[in-house]
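Lecture 7 notes: from sequence to structure.
We start with the chain below.
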Amino acid sequence: MRSSWIEVVTLALLAPALAGCGSVTRPSLDRASEVREWKAPEGVVRVELLVDGGVVRVGQSSELRASFEIELPAADRQRLDEVEFVPSISTSGTARLAVITPDGSTPSVLVDLQVPPWVEVSIRSNSADVIARGIGSPLTVDSQSGRIDASFRGGSAELQTISGRIRMFGAFANADVRSQGGDIDIVLPGPASALSRLRVENDHGDVRLHGHSQSFDTLRFGTDSGSLRPMVPGDWLAAERSDVRGSKIFFATGAHVGSSAPLVVESRTGDLDLLIDSNLLADDPLLSDLARSR
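Predicted structure tokens for the same chain:
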């Protein structure tokens, strides 16, 4: 997957999109850093970002722009001249952004990406953390071990990690959230939101879901071998059955007025905590922090 990106951005060295870039070098005693700035031309409707390590911050703005701060040990200061920030823009309006070195490696960078709500965002990373705030755009993040921490204001999400932790909250409309081993923490949108679909899958990590029964019509949840802790009203659980894997699957009917697809939350070996219509939020530091951030 990464090799195809490297080929794309390397061929783009001669692209006219480079005209929108600038750079500023920031010297220090033990570190050498340089900031590359980029402002998108008109017609861009999708951004694809490739990063290795570091931090990616995504925010909402009226214009599409990005800054890349590349930092190296002072002893490697000369390598800053070898690092290329290479954008390319397709005829379909997709901007592909990456920071690479001549040997094809991707250095750790601090990325600040600002996007309008009509621009789709796709981020692929190895170990970089992705922090998104107030997103109204469709957001896709595919990470190996990096942490994903995202809040939404009407956007949709597809978040996936191998071992990184995922936290998600805000007014998202639909979302797919998957992890093989990282914990997943989600606060559902409020009762007045337009939540239409949510699917959460985790192989070995724990899952915690907090929300209000008025946010959904039906919730399907279960775990193969992990502990199931549904903190819900006593008469809230509706039906129970076993599927072909032998895991217990529960269905619950919410109080949402309208129609939406069932919310699905599944964990194989990890624990599954549900806090629905629960007053335990104030006693949970993580969930309390998430709820205040919505």
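Points to note: The radius of gyration is 21 Å. The helical segments are 2-11, 285-293.
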